Amino acid sequence: MDTDIQDLLNGLSDFVDAVVVPLENGNAHLFDHGRNFYAPNGAYSEPVRKLLREVRERSAEAGYYTMFAPQDIGGGGLGPMALYEVWRHLHARYGPGRILPYASVAHWSYAPSVLCSYLTPTAKERMLPAYLAGTTTSCFGMSEPDAGTDAWAMTTTARRTDEGWVINGTKQWITNAPEADWVFVWAVTDDELRRARKGGISCFLVPTSAPGFAVDSVIKLFGQAGGHEGIISFTDVHVPEDALVGELHKGFPLAMAGVSTGRLYNAARCVGMAMWALDRAAAYAAERSTFGRPIAQYQGVSFQIADCAVEIYAGDAMSRDCAARLEAGEPAHTEVAMAKVFTTEMCSRVYERCMQVHGGMGLTNEMRLYDGWHTARIVRIADGSAEILRRNIAKATIGGHRP
């Protein structure tokens, strides 16, 4: 590993251990009980939101929060290799079922990202100071109830007026929507171009305080009391002309620009989470005895651990190769799709095995293995489901593409 990246990981770990973990431990009552963690509407409770904001702001002061944001807006401008290493490291070190450690680094879909480079000068003045400081966050308003995988099917519209634009429509599965201060929303600005799939979709920056914007509901998953995704709507939401992000009718490429980054992030997260689970399963198998012998000596257990190690190594190697290609500026959409499919499914298999190795303990809340299984199951669908990615991989392969 590059020594600069290793130094970065060491510094980030020191920050999280010294600043974030004490905050987490001192507020365990919030994180251990759903009624305290979530507000009645299903969003994060106000104390949790304050802690997240504190972590973001303190990380920004320490220089870690915006390490992946573009340099032209004041970020660190670090590339795909560092991105993969950082997220893999964080998830391998701190594991699932926690949120504060991961607030230390700006997430591409609701914190400073490449989208900020395309803001107008006046929009940058309004948004960026608090955004880069971690005080405010955003959300990525692309998916709709009837336009998920096929984004060209979106029906949200932006109509030009003498003073700017009026936006109407509904978005669904929007991460961080319940907490966001801003939303990057994609809307149809030329329906003829959209139907031809040649453009006609534009991106706009909208404050969530704008009249007509609403979080209609918080989406709750796996029986939890709340969630981090929401359904949002725009009812005659007026924005000025300078709210346009990038070029008119050319917003779709902006959304796609972050696809490889998002999938590489998910691969890193899954490899890291799988490493965390394997470490605990291996340690448990070595110390837990039945019939006078450590369970690690039974093939039914040891082979499950071996399978985990083999698959994690494969997923890590695939993902590092993708990161290196992206770092070099090479096109790697198909390879990143392959890595996303493999690592997310691998992570689910690892958690199934590690829960089984732990026996009944693997089902308990205190082991946090369920949290990892839960996250891995979601990621197999989020940011491109395995089915649509396999479709794309097959199409490229039949067309002659080889890794």
From TrEMBL:
Does this UniProt record's set of keywords contain Flavoprotein?
Answer: yes
**Record-linked Pfam families:** Acyl-CoA_dh_1 (PF00441), Acyl-CoA_dh_M (PF02770)
Q: Which domain of life is it from?
A: Bacteria
Q: Keywords assigned by UniProt? A: FAD, Flavoprotein, Oxidoreductase
One GO MF term on file is: flavin adenine dinucleotide binding
Cross-referenced CDD domains, in alphabetical order? ACAD
> Cellular component per GO?
cytoplasm
- Acyl-CoA oxidase/dehydrogenase middle domain location is 139-237
Give cofactor(s), names only.
FAD
Stretches assigned to the Acyl-CoA dehydrogenase/oxidase C-terminal domain: 250-396
Reply yes or no: does the keyword Oxidoreductase apply.
yes
- Among the record's GO biological process terms, what is one? fatty acid beta-oxidation using acyl-CoA dehydrogenase
Q: Which family does it belong to?
A: Belongs to the acyl-CoA dehydrogenase family.
- PANTHER family (alphabetical): MEDIUM-CHAIN SPECIFIC ACYL-COA DEHYDROGENASE, MITOCHONDRIAL, MEDIUM-CHAIN SPECIFIC ACYL-COA DEHYDROGENASE, MITOCHONDRIAL-RELATED
Quote the protein name from its UniProt record: Medium-chain specific acyl-CoA dehydrogenase, mitochondrial
Q: Which organism is it from?
A: Pseudonocardia thermophila
